[in-house]
């Protein structure tokens, strides 16, 4: 068996760097987070989503790192106002297109 250090590859991009997100937005055309929890529900993600949802009812919300706007869309029907912010221009474009008013 041969193991290699992926950081030594010519086209290696540091995960969660600006370049990594830019590449992700162009290759996938959406924010893709395929990891699934192996812990049965309620898991951390579900608990977070539920608590965040309860906290923002009828509030003004700033979603920093909104990606393609998926979480914003989920909350848009229960908040007073929601603004998404992301450093990746392609994700902002996708969020704008998919935003449900």
Automatic annotation (TrEMBL):
Gene3D superfamilies per the UniProt record, alphabetical: Vaccinia Virus protein VP39
Signal peptide: none
Domain Methyltransferase positions: 58-97
Coiled coil: none
The protein's name: Methyltransferase domain-containing protein
């Amino acid at each position: 068996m041969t193991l290699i250090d992926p950081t030594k590859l010519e086209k290696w991009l540091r995960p969660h760097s600006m370049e990594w997100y830019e590449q992700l937005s162009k290759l996938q055309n959406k924010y893709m987070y395929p990891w699934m929890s192996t812990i049965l529900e309620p898991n951390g993600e579900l608990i977070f989503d539920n608590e965040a949802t309860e906290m923002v009812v009828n509030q003004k919300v700033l979603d920093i790192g909104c990606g393609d706007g998926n979480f914003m869309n989920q909350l848009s029907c229960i908040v007073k106002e929601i603004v998404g912010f992301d450093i990746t221009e392609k994700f902002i474009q996708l969020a704008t297109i998919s935003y449900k008013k």
